[in-house]
Design brief:
Layout (H helix, E strand, L loop, with lengths): L3 H4 L2 E2 L2 E5 L13 H19 L7 E6 L5 H14 L3 E7 L2 H10 L4 E5 L8 E8 L2 E2 L2 H13 L9 E4 L2 H17 L13 E4 L7 H7 L28 H13 L4 E5 L6 E4 L5 E2 L2 H11 L7 E4 L5 H10 L3 E4 L4 H13 L6 E3 L5 E3 L5 E2 L1 H17 L4 H4 L8 E8 L5 H18 L3 E2 L7 E5 L6 E5 L7 E8 L4 H16 L6 H6 L4
Parallel strand pairs: 3-4, 3-5, 4-8, 9-10, 13-14, 13-15
Antiparallel strand pairs: 1-2, 2-6, 5-6, 6-7, 10-11, 11-12, 15-16, 16-17, 18-22, 19-20, 20-21, 21-22
Helix pairs in contact: 2-3, 2-5, 6-7, 6-12
Length: 509
């Protein structure tokens, strides 16, 4: 069992902490000493999994644009080489590219220094093997080595500088050339205008090294240069300000499409030529349409908060099967892998946050790969006289939607949250509420047109002492009708929750 000190670094399937000064009340805990222990723990873990001595291991190392990257990479390198490992240093790189070093360069493992979309003062470590990203129990094992002071025997490793992003970018270009199959094969994007917003993260390469060499006009692209203080907006396709910024830039440039990445490019979003977001349900819909080509009747795994209209789109318009699962991108990916092992044709796992993993791409959540597939689809549709908007024309989107996050006040927050869900289920049964038959996380309950015309999902957060409440309605005013029902149940039958955010939303405070 991890003690409270080392447990603070575990963030699901990653290690994260405070790496830089600049935020009041947040002291640096990702010290050089701790980072070296974590990297050494990964060597022990990887040596055990592969059966190879540390001196027989090759591990790739890359980082995003955060200001603490150089310091952390130096500490990781000291630990790896001190154990005898051969290090391939890739410099500024996307997280998905670091997985791909295990495929293309034959590395036994890789380390990406990143904290995704989190604030500038935070950073972390993400680990990969050829089988994909490490899971939660693997991270706990690595941190347990740190807690127990275990490390490999001393060795004498080496460092080799590698520009793997060049090879990775070339692969994406070849995908577009082959997928579009234009008359001018070398320049399949000639005549297309695409705006890229990298948010000053690691995604600037996509405009310069992928799109522009293929003939695309990338003028109007913004924030391509890496800057770990993220001075313009948070690099996060889920962030409203970030999406508003790329929408505005796309319209101003009169572009055919805009694309946006998070800091380390494992997530992407898009904007159509009218400046409307291709995000969340719309992004899942387009990715599903692409993934089901050649996989007729296939299953699409999503997280639990996708809309009712999306289910209809996947099943009625596309002829696929919609499999709602739990929040958490690794949960969604692992479920898709499980289904395929059982013989179920499942080509895509995607979370509404933008994490999208295609079976054809090792079930790797790669924002650049997803955006590349969408650009190919846009180019093919243009030849047919169609647009991405045409592809989405039958997608029914909710009239209203909201998310309210309810803090759990009790120390044993998981037990408290599970009890609240049990009470909610018992109430729903008594009142003959319609519990979703494909409910795999929390409680998802639907209401007819005359009684809210929508649904709510109450669930436990993957990591935090919070119960997120998602509510959608197909009628104006329906969200508040449904939210009042939820508040009534939680207020009278559940304890240990801070209901003030829901009361504020309903205007009762």
């Amino acid at each position: 069992m991890l003690d409270s000190y080392w447990k603070q670094f575990k963030s699901g399937t990653d290690i994260r902490g405070v790496a830089s000064e600049g935020v009041a009340g947040q002291e640096i805990n990702l010290t050089n000493e701790n980072i070296e222990k974590m990297a050494a723990g990964f060597v022990l873990w990887l040596s055990g999994k592969t059966g190879k001595k540390p001196s027989e291991l090759t591990i790739a190392l890359g980082h995003d644009s955060r200001i603490s990257a150089d310091r952390i990479c130096a500490a990781v390198t000291r630990a790896l080489t001190g154990a005898g490992v051969h290090v391939l240093f890739c410099g500024l790189a996307s997280t998905p590219s670091m997985f791909m070093t295990t495929v293309d360069l034959g590395c036994e493992g890789s380390v990406q220094v990143t904290a995704s979309h989190h604030p500038f003062n935070r950073n972390g470590l993400k680990f990969f093997t050829r089988d994909g990203g490490l899971d939660s129990p693997d991270i706990e094992e690595i941190l347990t080595y740190c807690q127990e002071g275990k490390k490999p025997e001393a060795g004498q490793g080496s460092v080799e500088n590698v520009n793997y992003m060049q090879q990775y970018s070339a692969h994406l270009r070849q995908m577009i050339q082959k997928g579009v199959n234009a008359e001018d094969y070398e320049h399949p994007l000639k005549g297309f205008h695409i705006v890229v917003d990298a948010g000053n993260g690691a995604g600037g390469f996509y405009a310069k090294d992928v799109l522009e060499p293929l003939g695309a006009d990338v003028s109007g692209s913004q924030f391509l240069d890496p800057d770990g203080r993220f001075p313009n907006h948070i690099p996060n396709p889920e962030n409203a300000d970030a999406m508003a910024s790329v929408c505005k830039a796309t319209v101003a440039a009169k572009a055919d499409m805009g694309v946006i990445f998070d800091t380390d490019v494992d997530r992407g979003g898009a904007v159509d030529q009218s400046g409307e977001e291709i995000n969340r349900n719309r992004l899942v819909a387009i990715a599903s349409a692409i993934a089901l080509e050649g996989n007729e009747g296939g299953t699409i795994v999503t997280d639990s908060i996708t809309s009712s209209g999306l289910k209809l789109y996947i099943e009625n318009t596309l002829g696929g099967v919609h499999h709602r699962f739990k929040r958490g991108y690794k949960n969604v990916i692992n479920e898709a892998i499980r289904l395929n092992k059982e013989g179920i044709n499942c080509p895509l796992a995607i979370e509404t946050s933008g994490h999208a993993a295609l079976r054809e791409n090792y079930f790797l959540d790669d924002g650049a790969y997803l955006v590349t597939k969408i650009i190919i689809k846009m180019a093919v549709l243009r030849r047919e006289g169609k647009t991405l908007e045409d592809l989405l024309s039958s997608l029914q989107e909710p009239v209203e939607a909201t998310e309210v996050r309810l803090p759990i006040l009790e120390e044993n927050f998981r037990e408290c949250g599970e009890k609240a869900l049990q009470e909610l289920e018992a109430y729903a049964v008594r009142e003959n509420w319609s519990i979703a038959p494909d409910n795999r996380e929390g409680m998802r309950i639907s209401f007819p047109k005359e009684d809210g015309d929508g649904w709510f999902l109450l669930r436990l957060s993957v990591h935090d002492p919070i119960m997120p409440l998602n509510v959608e309605s197909d009628s104006e005013g329906g969200v508040k009708i449904i939210a009042k029902k939820v508040l009534h149940v939680l207020k009278h039958y559940c304890t240990g929750l801070d209901l003030s955010p829901l009361e504020i939303f309903l205007g009762q405070r």
